[in-house]
Amino acid sequence: MPDSATLDPNAPPAAAGDAQLAAFRRSIDNIDAALIHILAERFRITQAVGEYKAANALPPADPARETEQIARLRALAEDAQLDPEFSEKFLRFIIDEVIRHHERAREGGRA
């Protein structure tokens, strides 16, 4: 709940720290928006992969490819100074969702 100074039209302007925090948050919001767009594009492509696999009787999952991707992205995470455990959990979540879509495509649904 806002304090009384927030509601007072005669209150002094926000501190410089508040402006800095707002700037940080705008940057985070922009990055979040970019992540959503990137994920949407990734899922459009994996949907096409799922449809291709279904049409060609290929299995929904490719464990060898998953292992390679996880190792590759863990290395990228380390280079970027991002926790590789976090990156692996994030990628595993995405891979599991993609596999679920591919299984649905194999069963005759949309990938």
From TrEMBL:
Report the InterPro entries cross-referenced here. Answer: Chorismate_II_sf, Chorismate_mutase-related, CM_bact, CM_dom_sf, CM_II_prokaryot
**Does Isomerase count among this protein's keywords?**
yes
Superkingdom:
Bacteria
Residue ranges constituting the Chorismate mutase domain according to the UniProt record: 15-106
Any single Pfam family the record assigns to this protein = CM_2
Task: Please provide, alphabetically and separated by semicolons, the GO molecular function terms listed in this UniProt record.
Answer: chorismate mutase activity
Protein name stated in the entry: chorismate mutase
Q: From which source organism is this entry?
A: Pelagerythrobacter marinus
